[in-house]
Please model this.
Amino acid sequence: MIGVLKLVGVTRRYGNVVALDGLDLTVPDDTYLSLLGASGSGKTTLLRLIAGYEEPNEGQVLLNGDRLDGVPPHRRDIGFVFQNFALFPHLSVAENVAFGLRYRETGRIESEAEIRERTQSALDLVGLADFGHRGVGEISGGQRQRVALARTLVTEPRVVLLDEPLGALDANLRARMCDELRAIRERLKVSFLHVTGSETEALTLGDTVAVLADGKIAQVDGARTLFTQPSNPAAAHHLNAWNILPGVVEGGGLRTAVGLLPINEPVADRTPAQLGVRFDRIDVCDPAEVPEAHDHFEAVYLTGEFNGPTTLSFFRTPDGSLIQVLDHLSDPRLPALKEGRTYALHFPPEAAVLFKGAA
Ligand code: ADP
Ligand code: MG
Model:
């Protein structure tokens, strides 16, 4: 895969904190790549390194094969949409967008007519054609987000970095902006690298989704593949859809704190491993009704979270682990649950993913 942007072995330390630890990442041409990482995992640091606001301690950043180290931010051809928009409050919408053209050091545009034309086409692109004259205090949060995007796009960057761009918006608006961001990117054919702490945002937006954990990329894959086949516990953990049970392989199953659980592949005894079981693949029944010889484990029902189309139920196993089970309103599998009662939980072996290696 030809990468327009490539990070090779990038390490960034702050004193004793290793924010990025030998990270490799390729952002392909003409792609929406979303990067999912917890708060404090180094997402902003990564974008700042790419944009040139910081340099790595080790490793390289390459754009179309050229090393970017030492190249100042305004010469990198990389756009940055900041987390809190960072608009100039005293300038109009149009002047905020034009700013990037008027004051950049290289390729500055002197012709007022051209500035007006390019500003207007950037505003058209983000759906703000008629808002140029407004003050940035006279528009909504979603519109401010679009101004921030237009201000970046007007300079025609080769790659656009977006730092949690939807974080400041309410849920309805966030869903709408997701569609718009994808549509805008498809029209422009530039690559977007969008970092977020939200797994739904990352999966909805990304053609490709990368998971950042412990300063490295845990996995990069298509959204559907990542969600259904995480390749390690760190990736699974970030999807917020997988229970992870550590144990040791024994006689064709995994011996865990909750008992012997089925696995779907032959693995040598005594191999340490972790079993991932998706929230929506666990079935629940009364302990008296477990079919004979059916692998199961027992857990106490704590509480449930009803959110409309789905219910998320929380169980506590005797060793204290929390197990989450997701039920869909349109296709319910779970019986009526009583808080404090013990239930039998089970899943088919093929529903689980085995991650070899100790926890
Ligand atoms: P995220 O954007 O994923 O929340 P950041 O990239 O902001 O994470 O931070 C990653 C880690 O690096 C955190 O532990 C943070 O405290 C640390 N860090 C980031 N910037 C600095 C800085 N300028 N000085 C010291 N520590 C920093
Ligand atoms: Mg951040």
